[in-house]
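Trying the structure run again after the queue cleared.
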Amino acid sequence: MSTLLMVGLSVSADAGTQRYVSTCTLSSSLSAECPGRIEFDLHARVSPEKRPAHGLTPVAAQVHGTIANEGGGHPPALREAIVDVPEGVAIDTDRLPTCRLRQLRTVEIRAARRLCRSAIVGRGVAHVGFGSSEAVVGSPLTLFNGGTSYGETRLLIQGSIATPAPTPVVAVAKISRKRQSLHAVLRIPPILEGDGSLLDFSFTIDRRFMAGRVEHSYLAAYCSDDALLVNLPSVTFRNETHIPGQAGTTVIKGGLHLPCTPSG
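Done. Tokens:
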């Protein structure tokens, strides 16, 4: 049974992003303003940019994001991103090997890459800062196919924090259809019991694989309207280290676009 799911990417054009709108949930204030404003920059490139107006073609996606407080200091932790997109990109997991979430939660990243080598769809790197110190550590990222079942595709993103000992951290993106659009929910667990926060991340998804004698691409896309449009109804950050002057929860809302050139 085919597991081809039409999806979109939570990315913006290298030319720039649209303005975000922030709302805050404060523990002891009814103020409508957000203390400790968050700067969240998201950029990407899907190649080739020139794609058929009708009919999918294999593509690769490069994504880069940075997170910071407008006034400096330790930023709150990115915990969830909800993405709604129209059709325009497809994920194909038909007969692509899978990796299980429980496997990635119990082994460090080199062991995970050996164990689930055939399920890897992308790689990258992230940097994490801590509320309890000024340390910044880097973490390799590996993106694994978590499989498709009951209309939902899982993308598993594993990192590893080496402080104080190697500790795997696994984020899960659940992708499903919602009416005519793609609905994706990415959840990132607390890092070191909430002490760690993402400062930046970058990754590339470019997996191709053979199923029988046919080559498949994990990502494929077309270009019918000069751009892939993306809506982020909520990107949620939490002040898990209880830093004074920061909101307990900050939700950023925005609209993004990724230009492309139709051909054919």
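The two ends are 30 Å apart (CA to CA). Worth checking whether this holds up in the mutant runs.
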